Amino acid sequence: MATLIRFITVALVILSALLLSSSLGGVTATEPKGNDKEVRRIYERWLVENRKNYNALGEKERRFNIFRDNLKLIEAHNSVPDRTYELGLTRFADLTDDEFRAIHLRGKMVRTSDPVIGDRYLYKEGDVLPDEVDWREKGALVPVKDQGDCGGCWAFAAVGAVEGLNKIKTGELVSLSEQELLDCDRGGDSGNFGCLGGNAADAFEFIVDNGGIITDAVYPYTENDTAACKAIEMVTSRYVTIDSYEDAPHNDEMSLKKAVAHQPISVMVEAENMKLYKSGVFTGPCDHWYGNHNVLVVGYGTTERGEDYWIIRNSWGANWGESGYIKLQRNFHNSTGNCGVAIRPFNPLLNGDLRII
């Protein structure tokens, strides 16, 4: 009997080790909680995959404790049946919520000028909209970018919207420079503050006043805002222009749907609990009346289970979420949309109205 018990115990230990050493991005409810030794093995592998290197004395151990707490949260969430989304060990798994918020959530609702709310995308009874839209399939989006540890989400959301609009209107997809916005659109009348945060709408205003924005091939991203504006040195380089910009109707998911059917739309969302998002339709928890992160809505659809969602392109790299994207619950019971997605959408304009394609 004792031999049998020892055999079963060894078998369970081996099984646990195999499960816990599986893909780091896919920690699910099928994996046991494990002891510290097993968690440390996962941690070491995660450090390598995410190219993490801590120089401060004791920092690696401190980060391990945070990592372990986040792993417990992931396991607890994924163990609940019928969740609409899954959590995983993203690149942010060594950060506390406060650290994540301070570094990566720098979107600002405050504008330097009163918004111009257009009615071109105001939803009216009788409007016929596509059941599904995905601007990725229409070739209107460059590959997902990564803001790194710079709080420049506002620049990425603005640039993504202009890239998409330029493709729709001209047929050409050009990757544009977030770094120009970080270096040049700050101070004076601008409400943007480089890596300390900003607003996509104020970035559109800069692009209009500046006569366009340069490509990132000649003004590449550096993940900081310490350099002086270099755009004046690149007057012979190619620019992409917009005519103007406006706010789409506020607090109206149907109007946002109409807008997204025409072009990718910059929005603000409250993204604190998206830190460990891996896949599925994100339903929260999140604040519905407040935004702290600029992102780009690039489509919408419905799952086979009937879950309506927005397709949102983030700026946290392609190894976060669903290859850099998140599905966010759509047709929310609150007018603001889930996580505030419909509070204040922004869209650039070029050569008049756009048609649905």
TrEMBL record:
A Gene Ontology molecular function term of the record? cysteine-type peptidase activity
Listed InterPro entries: Papain-like_cys_pep_sf, Pept_asp_AS, Pept_cys_AS, Peptidase_C1A, Peptidase_C1A_C, Peptidase_C1A_papain-like, Prot_inhib_I29
- Keywords in alphabetical order, please: Disulfide bond, Hydrolase, Protease, Signal, Thiol protease
Instruction: Tell me yes or no: is Mitochondrion among this UniProt entry's keywords.
Output: no
Keyword Transcription regulation among UniProt keywords: no
SUPFAM superfamilies per the UniProt record, alphabetical: Cysteine proteinases
- Segments forming domain Cathepsin propeptide inhibitor: 43-100
This protein's source sits in the domain of life called Eukaryota
Question: Sorted alphabetically, which Pfam families does this protein's record hold?
Answer: Inhibitor_I29 (PF08246), Peptidase_C1 (PF00112)
Enumerate the spans annotated as Peptidase C1A papain C-terminal domain. Answer: 129-349
GO annotation, biological process: proteolysis
| Secretion signal span | 1-29
What family does this chain come from, according to its entry? Belongs to the peptidase C1 family.
State what protein this is by name.
Cysteine protease
